[in-house]
Design a protein that fits this description.
The protein has 120 residues and is an all-beta fold. It has no helices and eleven strands.
């Protein structure tokens, strides 16, 4: 089993910044792609950003130039630096990971989510 634990959410004013972290632990042989998704009030869950084990990144158009995803493979941890936050960024942010265990079986995991609220 694998656990993803997010942290770093909170309340911030428009234009402010937050940094989210997601640490993976458990039966991990290798983690392939990791990413951040979000679900705003009354909306479907959507991609925010992903990063491969090699460091290749992909961003939603709505966050390009404002958010930066990064990864520490030694710590099985990813980060999301969020700058110039807007009220429409308000959502629960979820961490996601594609994990291969020691039996070479691959599974997809989700974290429990962390709330980000952008409001004055």
């Amino acid at each position: 089993q694998v656990q993803l634990v997010e942290s770093g959410g909170g309340l911030v004013q428009p234009g402010g910044s937050l940094r989210l972290s997601c640490a993976a632990s458990g039966s991990i042989f290798r983690i392939n792609t990791m990413g951040w998704y979000r679900q705003g009030p009354g909306k479907q869950r959507e991609l925010v950003a992903t990063i491969t084990s090699g460091g290749s990144t992909n961003y939603a158009d709505s966050v390009k130039g404002r958010f930066t995803i990064s990864r520490d493979n030694a710590k099985n941890t990813i980060y999301l630096q969020m700058n110039s936050l807007k009220p429409e960024d308000t959502a629960v942010y979820y961490c996601n990971a594609d994990v291969k265990n020691y039996f070479q079986s691959a599974y997809n995991y989700w974290g429990q989510g962390t709330q980000v609220t952008v409001s004055s």
